[in-house]
Amino acid sequence: MNSTGKLTSENENNYRPCRLSYDTLISNEELCTVGYNHAVITWVTPQQPADTTIYFGEQRAHLTRRTINDYTEFHWMELDNLKPATRYWYQVASNTGKGSLNSFITLPKPKGKYLFSYAVLSDIHIACGNPTKDFNEIYFGKLSEYSNDLFIQCILDSKRRNIDLAVITGDLTDDASRQQYLELRDLLLPYFGDTPYLLCIGNHDKYINNSSLGEKGFIELVANREKTTSTVMFNDYQFILIDSCKPNINKGYIDPGQLKWIQGMLKSNRKPAYLFLHHPCNGPDTWFGVKNHMEFQRIIRPFANVRGIFSGHIHRNKVTTNKFMTGNLPYVEAPATVQFPCGYGIVRVYENGFIYNSYKVSRLDLSEMSRDRFILKGGNALLSRYSFGGLGDRSFSWINGQLFYPRQYELTVTLDQQKAIELYKHTQSVDGASLTAAGNINKSKVILGRFDSLQLAFRSHWYKSLVYQMDVAIGKEDSGYIPRMRNKK
Ligand SMILES: [Fe+2]
Fold first, then answer.
1. From CA 187, how far away is CA 172, in angstroms rounded?
2. C-alpha of residue 123 to centroid of ligand 1, in Å
3. Which range has the worst mean pLDDT, 69-73, 191-195, 206-210, 245-249?
4. Distance, CA 101 to ligand 1 centroid (Å)?
5. Residue 480 in this model has a pLDDT that exceeds 70
6. Quick check: 222 and 172 in contact, CB under 8 A?
7. Which pTM was predicted?
8. Averaged pLDDT, 150-175
9. Ligand 1 center–CA 315 separation, angstroms
């Protein structure tokens, strides 16, 4: 494959004979989001503008076709009007290429009245042409020069999903300069229009050097309040904004005074509460999370009115629980707007629970640019697995204290790039497949199917191994840390 993703004529001579000639590659096909009534699937046809088509339905033998004739390399298909807790089959197609036949199960919907929804945005890193040039930018695809565009698009995208409120969990700025704070205040935050927003401070917002304002800039120019911490009542829910940052220190810490304050807020007001802070606060401090997370968890443990903890900082989708300390309480790490997958989360609140969904920004070109900029060996695949997370890190339902995660198992064959293209071409005359990067830079992964259950994956495994005469692997589409999953189906 050449850099355009097309087959070179020299290589074409080496291919196995095919009944038809195919030159549209379905790449990076991803089931990004699964809600109770909708799902989002994205894929790329590198340097091959093509239609965006999907076949989907409840019966694998009776699929309905939907096509968007926008002729693009970056394909986005949102399936709506789906039924809750129901299995759907789908297969994407563009021009002459077709992906594998996959399945997913929609999330269960909490019972009771729908109350309101809010967006969670994080790690915006407005740089104003003067980025900090940190590791994320040099090696891991942080798109500092597009930070404004990505933030604006995430605001507009989330507003289109009818949010009533937005919360930003820190790192609004790249290094807390006056110019960055002013640009946020005057040019960017106004895109929220009449949608109210709440701001948490991040470690980058507390940077202090000659030209940085640190938390003073945050308080005076963008947060419009007296302290970095705050609590706000919204629709009879408490939104508690915590400050987990210290000037010029990247690790998180919640000081004793603040822990007492959080305890006091939860004690004096037994209304349901969502907590927000910049640093993740579940598990060991391997990844620069909150150092004293155990103390924090001990404080919130007795309060059944806490519904969820939301953070950013790590620039990835991640959902964890701590069964021993806080039961099924979800700790949600929201994606960064500025780095792959470049997105945001939406929380839809009902009387008996809530649903969390993470979405990619609709500027898929930028999301893919960030993926491509990960420059370590095999990094493209590493980045996808790490910051995209598993399906259960992007979508779940919390209903009366129970968590419901969708599952996803994939059938793959990892081969040298040339061999992978050959297999892909072969699948096109059978039942379709997609291509994605593998952990080794010289190899590619052919995705032969994605399924919501291990049983379905095994059944298909038998068939695909027979048809393609290949060693087909079964794996989980995630980084391997999803908490035990439960689903009604
Ligand atoms: Fe950040």
1. 13
2. 4
3. 206-210
4. 37
5. no
6. yes
7. 0.92
8. 98
9. 6
Interval between CA 314 and ligand 1 midpoint (Å): 7
| 10 pLDDT more than 50 | no
Count CB neighbours of 409 within 10 A: 22
How far does residue 284's CA lie from ligand 1's centre (Å)? 19
Give every CB contact of residue 342 below 8 A, 6+ residues apart in sequence.
143, 150, 154, 335, 336, 360, 361, 363, 366, 367, 370
Nearest C-alpha neighbor of 198 from the set 173, 216, 224: 224
pLDDT tens-digit readout, 389-441: 999 999 999 999 999 989 899 999 999 999 999 999 999 999 999 999 888 88
Instruction: Mention every residue, 6+ apart, whose C-beta is less than 8 A from residue 103.
Output: 60, 87, 88, 89, 90, 450, 451, 452, 456
| Segments in 269-414 forming alpha helices (H) | 293-300, 323-326, 364-372, 379-383, 391-394
Neighbours of 367 (CB within 10 A): 28
Rg of the chain over CA atoms, in angstroms? 23
Give me ligand 1 centre to Cα 30, in Å. Answer: 24
**Mean pLDDT (the chain, rounded):** 90
26 Cα to the center of ligand 1, angstroms: 31
Please give the Cα distance from 202 to 403 (Å, whole number). 28
Structure tokens at 333: 């790490």
| Tokens read off for 436 | 């994605």
Q: How far apart are CA 364 and CA 74, in angstroms?
A: 6
Query: CA-to-CA distance for 345 and 122, rounded, in angstroms?
Result: 9
User: How far, in Å, is the centroid of ligand 1 from the Cα of 277?
Assistant: 12
Structure tokens at 152: 């604006």
Domains of the chain: 9-107+406-476 (2.60.40.10), 114-373 (3.60.21.10)
Alpha helices in 84-165 (DSSP H): 135-139, 147-160
**pLDDT (tens digit, 9 = 90+) per residue, 93-134?**
999 999 999 999 999 999 999 999 999 999 999 999 988 888
Q: What is the DSSP letter of 288?
A: S
d(CA 81, CA 83): 7
Give the angle subtended at the CA of 432 by the CAs of 106 and 89, to the nearest 5°: 20
Peptide bond before residue 46 is cis, with ω within 30 degrees of 0: no
Q: How confident is the model at residue 380 (pLDDT cuts 50, 70, 90)?
A: confident
Of 215, 213, 270, 286, residue with least CA distance to 244: 215
Residue showing tokens 């947060």 = 223
